[in-house]
Amino acid sequence: MSSPRRAFSAAFPSDCWYALARSGDVDQEPLGLRALGLPVVLFRAADGSAVALEDRCAHRAYPLSAGVVVDGGLRCGLCGFVYDADGQCVSVPTQPRVPFGAKVASYPVQERDGLVWVWLGEPGRARLARVPELPWLDDEAWAGVGGSSVVAAGYLLLHENFADVTQVPFVAPEIAPSVIAVAPPLDVVVTETTVTLRREFAPAPLPAWQADLLGAGDAAFETLQEGYFLSPAAWVDRWDVTGADGTTARLRFTHLVTPLDEGLSQLHWQVDRDFAVGDDGADDLMLEMFGDYYDRVLVAMETAQEVLDVDGPGPEVNVAADVAALKVREIVLAMLATESPAVITTRRARL
């Protein structure tokens, strides 16, 4: 794999698999986007596999995403240079020989669970890291609704918000389980690169929307909440409710975060359930309800980012509910510290 033109910003980890697109969004039409401050183009090769290249022609400053896919390669829409899946220029229209060094960066890609994951860091490290496993995203036994947004807020701000569900009743009280108001202490498990939190709530009635979908009325359900910081690219929440008869209904909240530039992030979110599957009315209800919820959350995160941008970080008062978010912050800072020497070396080599 060839290297990108510029060094990564030290503001976000680059040695990480990021979900840059849903599989259905990547086809024979080049898809241009930004990630980690870099221009990236996605398309499908002749064999159907997803390809990720630097979105800038080696000849002139022109995006390859403005070109076309020809015979499994990508042709620049300005000069006609054609690049293969490895980023090597294989054809130049004005001469028979390809100039030496005519290539663009190519990035490792994995496609799993209906997502295209791209590694934008040191290519040799890609095989050492696992792509998060999110099987419910592409399982017919589950039904899901979701959306995508570009958010004027940093990726770490988003993760810290996902790590604290006690904020939900203040952002969207109508969808929050009543048990959150008296949330028990967290059990938190930390590894070198992940954070797992767990809470078990006493039996209580479900939120009205969920009780209606389950036909549960005012029956009390035990609730288990688990949250997972899998990487800077993925946060997952699991909400399982179990009735007196032992029947369990499961929800999965998937948050896929990609830093675009400092203070700017891409969020793909999806809410999946294993109940009321095949119910179009349930899909419509949940899309409207959770679409509105995420809109409110993202507005709140953009407001918080504005405060940070204007006034800078200040002293913080933390409470017990912040423990998972603080652990996430520690892991990300450790990742940045580990990557910094490589970033600095790469930058010096190109001066």
What can you tell me about this protein's structure?
The protein folds into two domains: 17-128, Rieske Iron-sulfur Protein (3-layer Sandwich), CATH 2.102.10; 135-337, Naphthalene 1,2-dioxygenase Alpha Subunit, Chain A, domain 1, CATH 3.90.380. Helix content is 22%, strand content 32%. It is built from five helices and 18 strands. The strands form four sheets. Strands 12-18-17-16-15-14-13 form a seven-stranded antiparallel sheet. A four-stranded antiparallel sheet has the order 2-3-4-9, with no helix packed on it. Helix 1 packs antiparallel against helix 5 (323-349). The chain starts with 16 loop residues before the first strand and ends with a helix. Mean pLDDT is 89; it is low at 1-9 and 342-351.
Can you lay out the helices and strands and say which pair or pack?
Layout: E1 17-22, E2 31-35, E3 38-44, E4 50-54, E5 68-70, E6 73-75, E7 82-83, E8 89-91, E9 106-107, E10 109-112, E11 115-119, E12 143-151, H1 155-162, H2 168-171, E13 187-190, E14 195-205, H3 208-214, E15 220-231, E16 234-242, E17 248-261, E18 264-273, H4 280-311, H5 323-349
Antiparallel strand pairs: 1-11, 2-3, 3-4, 4-9, 5-6, 6-7, 7-8, 10-11, 12-18, 13-14, 14-15, 15-16, 16-17, 17-18
Helix pairs in contact: 1-5
Write out key terms for the chains shown.
351 residues, alpha+beta, Rieske Iron-sulfur Protein, Naphthalene 1,2-dioxygenase Alpha Subunit, Chain A, domain 1, seven-stranded antiparallel β-sheet, four-stranded antiparallel β-sheet, 5 helices, globular, disordered N terminus, disordered C terminus
